[in-house]
Design goal:
Distance between the termini: 55 Å
Largest sheet: 2 strands, antiparallel
Number of helices: 24
Mean pLDDT: 83
Number of strands: 4
Structural class: mainly alpha
Low-confidence stretches: 627-634
Length: 634
C-alpha cells in the first residue's frame, strides 16, 4: 500500500466514522424528526447544512472542470447557481415556511385543493431528484475508483451503502448534522489545494486574488493573459472571450437560477427552522457558505487548465522536443488512466504527446467508430448505412481540415490526448501541482462528502414524497407513524438502487447531468410555487396542466438529444448547436419549459372557475410571512 493510499484510507475513514457517529446520535424518532428535523435547527446551522446539501458532486468535482475547458462561457454556472439563492430567499423560502408543511407536494396539494396536483408534484419531484442523484452517484464512483483503488462500480456500491445508512435511519435530523460536518470537510478540501496552487503560480495565497495576479514564471503576464496565450497557440479557443450564443448563455443562466429556486430537496430545508424570519436568514447564510467555494472555482479552473497545458506542452509549439515524452508522463496521468477518465493515443508514433486543437477531427473519428459498430449490430441496415455514410463524409472533411492545419507541419495526425474528463480536474489538481499526499487525501474526502451530502438530501426528498405525500396523504391516510417511517426507508432503498444503476450508466459528466435536473425543476416546480404564492386566480386545473406541459416539453427536448430516458443510441438528433431549437441547448431549455408552464396554467385558469374563497384567503395569509408555527403533520 502506497503512502497516498494510507493517507486516503485514514482521512476518508475518519470522515465516514464521524458521519456514522452523528447519524447514530441523531436518529429520527418521529415523522417530524425524519422530515424536518423537528423544526428546530438554528438558521446558521441550517445555512451550513443547506450549503452542503446544495454543493453537490457537480459543484465540487465538475464545475471547475467545466470552467477549465469552457472559460468565460462557463460563468453561467456561477451566476445561475448562486443567483437562484437570491430568488429563493426573496420569493419562496419565507412564504413556504409560513405555510408550515413538510414537503413541496403537500403545499401544492393544499394550495391547489387537489390530490391530482399533489400526485403530479410528486412525479415532478421524483423525476428531478432521480436525475440529480445520478450525477452524485457518478461523482462517488469517480472519487472512490481513483483514490481507494477499486472499480467505479464498486465505488458506487460503497457510496450507496454509506448514504443509505445515515439517510434511512437519521432522516432529516441525522442528515442535517451530518451535512454540517460534510460542509467543513468539503470546503477545507476545496480551498486548501487552491491556496497551495495559487501560491505556486502567482505567489498570492488567496486564490480569488491569484486569478487576477501575475504569474511567477518571469513573463510578467497576468494569469488569464498567460492562459489565453498558451491555449490559443495550441489552436484552442481563447479562455476569456464569449464563444457560446448570447441567447443560450442567457437562457441557461435563467434555467439554473429558477431551477435552483425550485429544487425540492433544498426548499425542504427551510421547513426545518423555527420561524419565518429564520428561513430568510438561513438562505442568506447558505449563500455566504456557498460563495466561499463558488468564488474559488474560477481560480481552480483556470490554474488547472494552465497546469495541464504546461504538463503536455513542455517547450515551444512545433519544436522537436516541445511535447511531453509519453514514457516520461507524470505519475498522476498514469494513476488516472486506470479510471479511463483520461486517455491518449500516439497517432503519429513519435513517442510524444501532442495536444493541439483538431477542430472536429476527434469527434468525427469517434462518431465514425460508433456508426460502424451500429451498422454491425443494426436490424435496419439501410438506415444504419446512411448514418455511416454521413459519419464518413464528416470524417473526410475533418481529415482534410486537419491536413491543412499549421500543426500538420509538426508531424501531427490528430489530437493525441484523446480524453480528459471534466470530472477529474479538481480531483487531479493536487497531483498535477505535486502537492503533499495529505492534501490529495483531503480532496478525496471532500469529493465524497459533496456527493454523499447532496445524495442524502435528494433521497430524503424522494422518500418523503412517496411515504408522506402518496401513502399518508392520498392512498393510505390512516397508516401509523411507525408504518410511515418504515415506508420512507423502503422508498430510500429503492431510490438508491435505481440511482446506483443510473450512476453506472450516466448520460454525461456530473455537472451536465445536474444541469438537466435544474431544467426539470425550472419547468415544473418553480412556476407552480410562484403562482401558488403570488396569484389567487390560478386554480387546480391550471396547476396540473401547467406542470405536465412544462415538465413534458422539457423532458421531450432533453430526450431528443440525450436519448430516451438517457439510453444511449436512442437520440433523435445529434446534440450539436446546428440541431438545437433557436440555438438553445438541452441544459438551457428549462426556461422555455417554465414559460410553457406559466402560459398553460394561466390560460387554463382563466377558462375555468376561480379557486374557492378559502383558498384565495389562504394565498393572502401566506403572502404575509408572519406568525408561522412549526411544521405540522396530518
Amino acid at each position: 500500500m502506497t503512502e497516498l493510499q494510507i493517507w486516503t484510507y485514514a482521512v476518508v475513514g475518519l470522515s465516514f466514522a464521524l458521519y456514522f457517529y452523528i447519524a447514530y446520535k441523531a436518529q429520527a424518532g418521529s415523522t417530524s424528526d425524519f422530515y424536518v428535523a423537528g423544526g428546530g435547527v438554528h438558521p446558521i446551522a441550517n445555512g451550513m447544512a443547506t450549503a452542503a446539501d446544495w454543493m453537490s458532486a457537480a459543484s465540487f468535482i465538475s464545475m471547475a472542470g467545466i470552467i477549465a475547458f469552457k472559460g468565460y462561457d462557463a460563468s453561467v454556472y456561477l451566476m445561475g447557481w448562486t443567483g437562484g439563492y437570491v430568488l429563493m430567499a426573496m420569493l419562496l423560502a419565507p412564504y413556504l415556511r409560513k405555510f408550515g408543511k413538510f414537503t413541496v407536494p403537500e403545499f401544492v396539494g393544499d394550495r391547489y385543493y387537489s390530490k391530482t396536483a399533489r400526485i403530479v408534484a410528486v412525479i415532478c419531484l421524483v423525476v428531478i431528484s432521480l436525475t440529480y442523484v445520478i450525477g452524485q452517484m457518478k461523482g462517488v464512483g469517480v472519487t472512490f475508483s481513483r483514490f481507494l483503488g477499486v472499480s467505479m462500480e464498486m465505488g458506487l456500491v460503497v457510496g450507496m451503502i454509506i448514504v443509505f445508512f445515515y439517510s434511512a435511519f437519521g432522516g432529516m435530523k441525522g442528515i442535517t448534522y451530518t451535512q454540517i460536518a460534510q460542509y467543513v470537510v468539503l470546503i477545507l478540501a476545496y480551498t486548501i489545494p487552491a491556496i497551495f496552487i495559487s501560491l505556486q503560480l502567482t505567489g498570492n495565497p488567496i486564490p480569488q486574488l491569484g486569478l487576477g495576479s501575475q504569474v511567477t514564471d518571469g513573463s510578467n503576464m497576468y494569469l488569464l493573459d498567460k492562459l489565453d496565450q498558451v491555449i490559443t497557440e495550441l489552436g484552442f479557443k481563447s479562455y476569456t472571450d464569449q464563444h457560446d450564443s448570447t441567447i443560450n448563455i442567457f437562457l441557461l443562466t435563467m434555467t439554473l437560477m429558477i431551477g435552483t429556486a425550485g429544487l425540492p430537496h433544498v426548499i425542504i430545508r427551510f421547513f426545518t427552522v423555527p420561524k419565518v424570519a429564520d428561513a430568510r436568514s438561513s438562505a442568506g447564510w447558505a449563500l455566504v457558505f456557498i460563495a466561499i467555494l463558488y468564488t474559488t472555482a474560477p481560480a481552480i479552473g483556470a490554474m488547472a487548465r494552465l497546469n495541464l497545458m504546461n504538463t503536455v506542452q513542455t517547450g515551444p509549439v512545433g519544436a522537436a522536443d516541445g511535447n511531453l515524452v509519453i514514457e516520461e508522463r507524470p505519475q498522476w496521468m498514469k494513476n488516472w488512466e486506470a479510471t479511463k477518465l483520461i486517455a491518449f493515443q500516439d497517432k503519429n508514433g513519435d513517442g510524444r504527446l501532442q495536444y493541439y486543437s483538431d477542430g472536429a477531427l476527434s469527434k468525427a473519428q469517434a462518431d465514425f467508430a460508433t456508426a460502424e459498430k451500429a451498422l454491425a449490430d443494426a436490424a435496419d441496415k439501410t438506415k444504419a448505412q446512411e448514418s455511416l455514410d454521413k459519419a464518413k463524409a464528416a470524417l473526410d472533411k475533418a481529415n482534410t481540415d486537419a491536413a491543412a492545419s499549421k500543426f500538420a507541419g509538426f508531424g501531427w495526425k490528430g489530437n493525441e490526448l484523446t480524453k480528459v474528463d471534466n470530472d477529474i480536474i479538481v480531483l487531479a489538481n493536487p497531483e498535477i501541482a505535486k502537492l503533499p499526499n495529505w492534501v490529495i487525501a483531503l480532496v478525496a474526502a471532500g469529493g465524497i462528502a459533496a456527493a454523499l451530502s447532496t445524495a442524502a438530501g435528494l433521497l430524503l426528498a424522494i422518500a418523503s414524497a412517496i411515504s408522506h405525500d402518496l401513502m399518508k396523504g392520498i392512498f393510505t391516510p390512516n397508516i401509523s407513524e411507525k408504518t410511515e417511517l418504515m415506508s420512507s426507508r423502503v422508498a430510500i432503498t429503492v431510490a438508491i438502487l435505481l440511482a446506483g444503476y443510473m450512476g453506472m450508466n450516466p448520460p454525461g459528466f456530473a455537472a451536465e447531468v445536474v444541469a438537466l435536473a435544474f431544467g426539470l425543476a425550472a419547468s415544473s416546480i418553480f412556476p407552480v410555487l410562484m403562482m401558488g404564492i403570488f396569484s389567487k386566480r390560478v386554480n387546480n386545473y391550471g396547476a396540473v396542466l401547467g406542470m405536465l406541459a412544462g415538465l413534458g416539453s422539457t423532458l421531450v427536448y432533453i430526450f431528443w438529444f440525450k436519448g430516451w430516458f438517457f439510453v444511449k443510441g436512442t437520440e433523435m438528433a445529434a446534440n450539436v448547436p446546428a440541431n438545437w431549437f433557436l440555438g438553445i441547448s438541452p441544459e438551457a431549455f428549462g426556461t422555455v419549459g417554465a414559460l410553457v408552464n406559466f402560459a398553460v396554467a394561466i390560460l387554463v385558469s382563466r377558462m375555468t372557475a376561480p379557486p374557492p374563497a378559502h383558498i384565495q384567503e389562504l394565498v393572502e395569509s401566506v403572502r404575509i410571512p408572519r406568525g408561522a408555527g412549526t411544521a405540522i403533520a396530518h
